[in-house]
Structures are given as C-alpha cells and as structure tokens.
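Working notes for the structural subgroup meeting. M.R. asked for a predicted model of this chain before we commit to crystallization trials. I am recording the input and output together here so anyone reviewing the notebook later can reproduce the run.

Input as submitted:
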Amino acid sequence: MPNENELAKIVQRFGAMRGLADRAKAESPNDPRAQFGVGVASQLLGDFAAAAEAFGRVSVLQPNNAPVLFELGLSQEYCGKFDAALKAYERALAAAPDFFKAREALVRLQKQTPERNSIAVMEAQFPGPDEDGWRTAHLGHALAKTYEDFGDLEQSLAWLKRGKARRKAFNPYDAAMEDALAQAAIEASPPAVAGFESQEPIFVCGLPRSGTTLVDRILSSHPDAVSLGEIGNFALINKMLSDSLTRPTLDADTLSRAGAVNYARLGKLYIDSTRPLSGVAPRFIDKAPGNYLLASIILRALPNARVIVLRRHPLDSVVSNYKQLFPIDDRFYHYVYDIEAAAHKVVQFDRVARHWQASLPAERFMLLQYEDLVSAQEEITRRLVAFCGLEWNERCLAFHRNAAGVGTPSAAQVRAPLYNTAMGRWKKYGALLDPARRVFERAEIEL
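Returned structure, recorded in token form:
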C-alpha cells in the first residue's frame, strides 16, 4: 500500500511551496536566506519572473554572492531578458573569477571569436580540483562551444569528451538497463479499467532537444492552454501507487507493476496535483521528457488526455544531446556523456515511440517528426491544435511572441520565429559521428 502521507505531500507540493514562498516574501524581505528560498521555490513553480525578483533582492543584500548572481542571471535568461542575464553572469564572474557556471553561461550566450574568447583562462582552470565532475563539465562545454563557434568541430568534440569524462565515470550509461526499461514500457499492460475523465492535460514528451519546448510554446500560445513546464508529477504518483520499492521514479520494476495501480485514482491525484499551476485553464501542457515511457499508463489513467511524442533525425538527436549540459544528477541523462551511449538511447526511444504509434489510439497519441513541423509550420501547427481539441488561433503561429518564462536550454531559440538551420546539423560532422552511425546500423535504423 502506498504511504498516504508521502502521497499527499506530492499532490500538495506546489500549493505548499507557493504558500511558503508567499509568506517568506512578505514576512522576511531583508533575510537573504529566506529570499533565496523564495527564488528557488519560484523557479520550481515555473514563475521565473518572481524568481528573478527574489534573487535580485538577495543580490542587493549580498552584492558579491556569485551563486546568487548566477541564479539571478539564469532566471532572467529564462524570462528572455538576455542582456540583463549577461550582466548578472558578468557580476558573478567578477565576484568569483573561477566560478565555472557563470563562465560557461557567458560563453553559451555569446558568439565566440578568435579575437574575443576566454580559451586561455578556461584551459588554465580546467586541470583544477573537481570532486564531482561538474567543474570540468562546465569548462569543457564552454571550450567546446568556443571551438564550435570557430568552426573547428573536431576540437569541439574533443573538448566535450574531455569535459564529460569525469561525470561519465561517476554516471556510466547502463545499456542493459535501458534495454530493459524500453522493453518494460512496451510490455506494460494497464488493465481495461476506467480512468479519470479530464480533457485538460496535454503531455508533450520525447528526448530532450527534439522540439518539445517548441511544441510546448506553440500550444501554450493558445489562449485556452497554459504550460506547467517539466513537473514530473505523473511519474511520481504512478510510482507510489504501483507499490514499487526501488529507488528510481521510473524503472522496469515500476512499469512491471502496471496491473497494481488504481488508474482512476492516479488520474485524479495527478490532476489535483497540477491545480495550483493550471488554475482554470481549459488545457494545460506537461512537458516532462520521460513521460514518453508512460504513454499507455497515461492514457489508461486519463483516457481523454493527449500525448504528443517528438522525434528528430537520429544523428541530429545524438549531436544535440551530446552537446547539451544537463546540470542535474538523474539517471535519465547518463547517456549524454558518450556519443555511442547517446545513439543507444535514441535507438531505445525510437523503439518505444514506434510501438506507441502502432498500438495507441490515433485520436489520443501523436508521434511528431520535428523536421515536419519546421518544414510545414502552419499545416502541422493546425494539426497539433486540432489534435488537442482546441479551436484554431493565429497566436500559435506567433509562438515566439509568447512572453511566459521558459525553463529549458531552448529559452533563446523559442523566442525567435521558426527557423530551419537546426535541421541536418549532423552532416557537417562527417566521420566524427561514425561511432553513432555504427550503433544505428546494428539497430537497423535508417539515416
């Protein structure tokens, strides 16, 4: 039986978090620790404007606190205030010249040139002490971005490999475990029982860097839809109701217990858990990437929900994920530390996604190719809007004007009109991607 107290905490966590943040903001405006907590809570709630305000208050109280200035910059970046973010990152680096997070952020947001770069500083700092691998990961990614801006892709990938090495040692990719997880998702057979009748949720999922944020912005530009970001509530509640005792929220053991879940309760608890964020909006978007593994369970618990899974060209998926720095300790992202691991992850994703396309109802499940959306924006956007049960609205074509915060690595890209320069980037890497090609050849995936 699930721990009812822990279950209640999950369901009520957003409401409780908002209440604590509101009280701290009102009662302790000059307490740096309290206001920092307000900022962190606001980030978790997806309210990046409130987060920026809170971190701004702390930066006045502690003007040389580099971590605070970094969080201020990150929140401003998520709000689309890139000039302000750059200034905050520069202040953080001035306060602590070896603060690698600020260094990487500055490189990431600015075009590097042979005349204007920080190569010498970063190469000098790279060999320094690094207990958990994050320092070398950030500096390695910043050096890789620099050489990519120069057009030197071989050197760029070499720095990615060096920068990721320590994190890879701490978090080795377990291919057998990923195989088992994909198989368990495919074999998960929720019983034919009634779920919770709600048409509100739209689940947008898939591997990172595949267009999920783009689709989220398109749909949340509709006046009848709101984005909740990557909240992870569905997987957490499903874990607890499955009676699985393993540590990971989403693993083969949890999926194998699909027959033990009360699906009507799962659906209701999930909807209840989102209410502090979704309010009374007719539709809301949940963009947690790993939900693609739960598609059949989602549609059993919420039979009127929509699930949209994004797919991208396999080699573009490898490149974009390998280049990405996900600054969190989560087994889901262990594949980004190695090119072959990234290719294997794409193979397993593709296996699950194609199974859902063949087995789930077309009126509730959509497998969407990123390249199709970019090539035929209006046609595919109209299909998306209709699929979600919404009336057509021109705002969905002007998603780049959506002023809401974006808490993902695509924060800058989705504030510009749709462009096609991200398609086919793998082609310029040539033989450098041969290790990934061999993985796809063995899996008989066409490129």
